[in-house]
Write the structure tokens for this entry.
Amino acid sequence: MSKSSSKASDAKVLSTTPLMVEDARWTRLVLCAIDHLNYQKGELTGSRTTYQDPLGKQRTWEHAERAPSGPELLLQKQFRPPVDKAVIEIPAGLVDVGESAAESAVRELREETGYHGKVSEVSPIMFNDPGFCNTNLNMVHVTVDMTLPENQNLKPELEENEFIEVFSLPLRDLYAECKRLEDQDYAIDARVGTLAEGIELARRWNL
């Protein structure tokens, strides 16, 4: 490709990896105490990105990234024909024969999002709508370590009829974000909405 025919849009990122201080050539992260701002350890991280320029030459770029300042919830957008809307959901699925709820949760997380996680808690069995049917579930708490290599280049294993968009939200903003998403004509899954309500009640009552 000649330089005259190349465009900025021809460039593409090939990989991004954590940048250790001893490996940095240009970037140095400094923690400072500044009035009215709270920079906590881990909020600012260094990265090295390998990219291909418009001429096809591979280059590297050192840069800083602001990491989340609190826990986040991994969510999905998935169209559901019964409600004729895209629904805001948590990763979920059916328990296969011979599986525990915890094993199923880790598998479904990997298949639907590409993330690898570890189970930290399993709830009691809960019934969705016992006045109508006997459908039940366990809420499984799974933690995802974003620094692990297997959580960098995600490879979901979606079925042919699955079309899932993955995103995350800070837990502290979940209630407000559910309202905003509903205003944008998304449907809110009851499990997401109930969690958001619980967090909001705890905030309001200082629990």
